[in-house]
Amino acid sequence: MALHPVDIAIIFAYLMGMVVVGFIVERQARSGIQSYFLGGHQLPWWILSMSNAASMFDVSGTMWLVSLLYVYGLKSVFIPWLWPVFNQIFLMAYLSSWLRRSQATTGAEWITLRFGSDYGAEASRISVVVFALVSVVAFTGYAFVGIAKFSQVFLPSVVPAHTYALIIVGITTLYTTVGGLYSVVLTDLIQFVIKFICCVVLGGLAMWKVSPTMLAAVVPPGWTDISFGWWLNLNWSELLPAAQRKIDSDGYSMFGAFFIMVLLKGFLVSAAGPAPNYDMQRILATKNPREASLMSGLVTVVLFVPRYFMIAGITVLALVFMHADVSRSNQFDLEQVLPIVIRDFLPIGLAGLLISGLLAAFMSTFSGTINAAAAYMVNDVYRRYARPAASDREYIVASYAASILIVIVGCAAGYFTPSVHQATDWIVSALWGGYAAPNILKWHWWRLNGWGYFCGMIAGIAGAISLMAFPQVQPLQAFPLLLLISTIGAVVGSFATAPEHESVLVDFYARTRPWGWWRPILTATQRKHAEFQPNRNFGIDIFNVLVGIVWQTSFVALPIYVVLKSWPETSICLLIIVITTAVLRVTWYQRLEKT
User: Fold this and answer.
1) How far is CA 577 from each of CA 178, 265, 562, rounded to the nearest angstrom?
2) I need a labelling partner for 393 at 20 to 30 A (CA). Which of 40, 276, 402, 584 fits?
3) Which one is the CATH code of 5-417+533-591: 1.10.3470, 3.15.10, 1.10.287, 1.20.1730?
């Protein structure tokens, strides 16, 4: 596709605008390390929520979700539980407030509060940094391969697609490095507005051009049905063999078993708390625990409704108007449906705006990831072990170098990543499979010590990396084994070494106030603080999680049904949203603490 000069001008103006924003906020960002990485705890929670949503609204993930809806129809709303998307509900219900009470800058710094400052604590701190860097490299590679595929469809082929990806990455790195979190958040807000406009336009275009009858002619029976049994029962064999091959290769035909697996996995990974990335950074940047919970809750509304309106619009347009081309191709890449729709359906000007919006989606995720990773390298490696007494200016300069280094390694990983789906599968099932056990235990079991945490984390990370040597093994199938390995590492490591000092555990428990197996520490805390009361909110927190998952899933299905013009199902979704919102207002919102 040869872009019109108007579209090229729009894209160029957008990219340059993002760089200008980074330099505008540079002075405020360099006022101190807290300002650079956490915005000085001065950013309103709703702005952080929109920034967080913009960071999650990435181009690679959107391409993946479009391919899922294209093939699996309404049942695809459950497949992102692999991630799991409902981790935001766990954060909203209780984990964000627990995390914010720590007053830490990064997850590794939080380790000091939990495990103290002995050798075991240092080991556990290092394991968090290792996990953060491995996950950031993986996410960077995932984003890089997505933007390369995106660019390949509509940008001139005078240079390889990866070259375009490097140019976009370079611009994003420039404004992120210069402006820190201020730059990330401000550009995220601009990008969110652009993406919102694009979502409305694409969803509206699909509603205007496609009727339910036209759609029914190109999808198999059951495609518009969100319910399912043990088997998927979607047969694309005659309509679209490429879609049938994807179902077979994904291994989701036994959809009931898949659903049970991702639900159990999702609960375990979500209960572990946020991974050390941009999500955790936004929580730590809020003003207080109450705003941390509100920030995580709002993400569901501002992310899923517009994003799935766009996803449904792109998918419907592709199903109806690209059906003949896709059915004739034996090698069609379903992850390229999104850019092809842009190429074939959008008029001059709107194409440039939408490309800018999707570049915004990439840049939001990429910038947030890089800024969070630089915080780990500077705060938890350079500052702690190399230059503990350096000036804030030196730490900010060090963050520039850290950001650039992370980008180089991540882009190199992207060159060897074959598809967005494979990258997603490894991150959410293999890497997080090794992360879950020690991070659940750190909240809920007093006996987990620094060495136990270190052993659990390193065993999990090593297991996830070693899985790359066995490409025939699906990461989701390996999740239980990785979970078992990391659990054994954490438990054996803890019992093989002495417990943490009681004063460390009392300080953590009194400040964070988690529920779980803390009886000896509760007794010690009450000896020191006679008025202290344990957290008895386990039941209401889990109830809010269950209601919240239904609430969130309704926000995912609602925009899809609107685009499909399925008005009875739309009405049911709205009714469920009203009921669950009313319940959460009483059981969650009115109970939020300000401290």
Assistant:
1) 41, 25, 15
2) 276
3) 1.20.1730
